[in-house]
Amino acid sequence: MDEGVRNVYSHQIAAICGATAARVRRDLMVIGYTGSPIHGYAVKELIESIDLFLDSPEGQRVALVGVGNLGLALLAYFTGRRPKLSIVAAFDKDPEKVNRVVHGCRSYPLSQLREVVGQQRLEIGIITVPAGEAQTVAELLVESGVRGIVNFAPAPLQVPPHVYVEELDVTQALEKAAYFARKSRVGELKT
Predict the structure, then answer these.
(1) What pLDDT is attached to residue 2?
(2) Which CATH number does 60-172 carry?
């Protein structure tokens, strides 16, 4: 939306999201926010309501395991971006990557993960280690009390049912995009 817009209508939000106006209205009612047919939704209040619904009021702290290229990129990306959801501790087994502060985040030896996760009450973990190490890291995170994991390693994780895992395979996503780009190009050549 344009800066300075005070009100927005469900059909405008729907067009941006690729949904129907009715779906937008139903979803916003779930979070406890309603607009008016005449004035639509007050943008500032709508953003605040969505923020309260999505983010914990006291915030959530995240552990990152793997301070390689991808881990460093995530640290750089998240610095200051989401104040209520922040990476506050990083872990690695490489002595060259620990005992320092990277993008405002302290990096610890992997051997201190249980202790730091417990002390800092971290609930979420991000895994950016090689595939062969991902399951071991996931088990360590779960044993330490983490209840949500974002896994960038190209290996599916086995965790208890009370732990949510979001699998993000960058290679698979790139291969999928390449396939559909190629398929689209072939379709254009035939016409």
Answers:
(1) 55
(2) 3.40.50.720
